[in-house]
Amino acid sequence: MELALAMPLLCLLLLGVVEIAVVVRDQLVAIEAARTGVRAAAVSADPASAATAAVQRAIGQPASVSTSISDGYVTVTVVITNHTDVPLIGLLMPDVELRGDATMILEPP
User: Which InterPro entries does the record associate with it (predicted)?
Assistant: First the structure.
C-alpha cells in the first residue's frame, strides 16, 4: 500500500531530475555556442555575421545572438529558450531562458 502511494511522487521527482538535467545541458550548449561564436567573430572582418553563422552551426536550434565590440574586445551573447517538454513537469515549470556570454580580444582580419 505504501509503495502504491509513494510511486506517483517518486515518478514526479524522477521527471523533475530529468528536466533539470536537460536545462543544465542546454545551459552548457549556450555557453559553448557563445565561445564558438566569439572565436569566429574575433578573426572576422564582419564579426556579427561570423558569430551568428558559427552559433547557428554549433547549436542547430533557434537562438538569439548579439555581438558587441568595445575597446578592442568582441563579446558574443547567446540566448536560448528551453521549452519544458518533459511530461507533467512541463505543466508545473515555465520555459527557461538560458544565456551564454563570451569575450575575446579582437584580432585584425
Answer: Rv3655c/TadE (IPR049790), TadE-like_dom (IPR012495)
Angle at 20 between CA 18 and CA 21, to 5 degrees: 65
Distance from C-alpha of 88 to C-alpha of 93, rounded to nearest angstrom: 9
- Please report the sign of the dihedral spanned by the C-alpha atoms of residue 14, residue 82, residue 87, residue 60: negative
Cβ–Cβ under 8 Å, residues 101 and 77:
yes
- Tens digits of per-residue pLDDT, 43-75? 999 999 999 999 999 998 889 999 999 999 999
Rg of the Cα atoms in the chain: 19
What's the grid cell of residue 73?
574586445
Dihedrals φ, ψ of 95, to 5°?
Answer: -60, 145
Mutual orientation of helices 47-59 and 2-42 as an angle, nearest 10°?
A: 150
